[in-house]
Design a protein that fits this description.
Bound molecules: NADP nicotinamide-adenine-dinucleotide phosphate
Structural class: alpha/beta
CATH topology of the largest domain: Rossmann fold
Mean pLDDT: 95
Strand content: 5-15%
Helix content: 40-55%
CATH superfamily of the largest domain: NAD(P)-binding Rossmann-like Domain
CATH class of the largest domain: Alpha Beta
Shape: elongated
Strand order of the largest sheet: 3-2-1-4-5-6
CATH architecture of the largest domain: 3-Layer(aba) Sandwich
Number of strands: 9
Order of helices and strands: EHEHEHEHEHEEEHEHHHHHHH
Low-confidence stretches: none
Length: about 300
């Protein structure tokens, strides 16, 4: 049982954790913080939080567990503002989508409390944001990755693992590097491709006409381009090196496809498309791919 949970950032990810733990009956009291009074009031009205805090200091002063779920670019400033106001045994964890940047920020800002910081990432989400997007079921049978470091206190790690399990999630541990490289491939790169393609089509003068004939494949692929721009700017800049490496690889593959089309090399296209189809139909079709994909 968590006596007092504090949610910093009462949007989709933070709000859903509060709702899930409340539904499971494993939290006594939830305090929430967002910069805007509108978001705080909405979270209160939706029953996501029991108390709304007007400052970060107030939000964490009495909390036993603090979940930071703000865009990654805001994490360092949040850690700096809460550090001096934490209870001595308070556990801090987060839901940021790339881990190295968040861990560096926590290490530099949290001081001695860094040992009780447990980095985490729920591999769940939607393209919606804000308190109204929060769902008690969001984490049911979804994966949560924890990326503890050498300094991470074992009992804090176990407490956070248990919290996510109570929210319905399957919890895994990984190194930061492994996490950031895997998520760059399966989530960050696809988002960049979708943002770029949708933007490219949106620039066309005949965009409305083009979209009238869009097939289901385009609708599926373009959905993730509805995701929040600030959040994705922060993820791209926060996981820079893994994303740059993958973009380079992707561009290399695209160049070869372009060359094959230019040179009328159908065999190359059959080879690439066939191998992709084979992979998608077999290895990628394992149960869990759909259920665990982030947004
Ligand atoms: P969201 O729905 O937009 O919620 C973000 C919350 O943070 C809002 O309550 C927002 O309210 C608050 N906030 C924004 N900037 C802030 C700041 N500078 N200081 C304090 N509070 C601030 O976003 P989300 O989708 O829940 O994402 C939150 C985190 O989870 C991000 O780090 C993201 O990388 C990660 N994540 C997202 C997904 C996904 O699919 N969406 C999945 C896994 C992990 P105000 O604007 O009123 O402050």
């Amino acid at each position: 049982m968590i006596k007092h949970l504090s949610i910093i950032g009462v949007g989709l990810i933070g709000g859903s954790l509060a709702l899930a733990l409340k539904k499971a009956g494993v939290v006594e009291q939830v305090t929430g913080y967002a910069r805007s009074a509108v978001a705080r009031e909405e979270a209160l009205a939706l029953g996501i939080i029991d108390n709304s805090a007007e400052t970060l200091a107030e939000a964490v002063a009495d909390a036993d567990v603090i979940f930071v779920a703000v865009p990654m670019g805001a994490m360092q400033s949040v850690f700096e503002q809460i550090a001096a106001h934490l209870k001595p045994q308070a556990i801090i964890t987060d839901g940021g989508s790339a881990k190295q940047q968040v861990v560096d920020a926590a290490r530099s800002a949290l001081g001695e409390a860094f040992t009780r910081f447990v980095p985490g990432h729920p591999i769940a989400g939607t393209e919606k944001s804000g308190p109204s997007a929060a769902l008690a079921e969001l984490y049911q049978q979804h994966r949560v990755v924890l990326t503890p470091v050498a300094e991470t206190d074992k009992s804090a790690l176990e407490r956070v693992r248990h919290m996510w399990q109570q929210a319905g999630a399957d919890v895994f541990e990984m190194t930061i590097e492994h996490h950031d490289s895997i998520l760059a491939a399966t989530s960050h790169l696809p988002h960049l491709l979708a943002f770029n393609l949708v933007n490219q089509l949106a620039q066309r003068e005949d965009c409305d006409e083009v979209l009238r004939y869009a097939a289901g494949g385009f609708r599926d692929f373009s959905r993730i381009a509805s995701s929040d721009a600030v959040m994705w700017r922060d993820i791209c800049l926060g996981n820079r090196s893994a994303i740059l490496e993958l973009l380079q690889q992707y561009r290399g593959g695209l160049d070869l496809i372009e060359k094959a089309i230019r040179e009328d090399d159908g065999n190359y296209l059959i080879d690439i498309f066939g191998r992709a189809k084979q992979a998608r139909d077999t290895r990628f079709a394992e149960p869990g791919l759909k259920d665990n994909s982030e947004v």
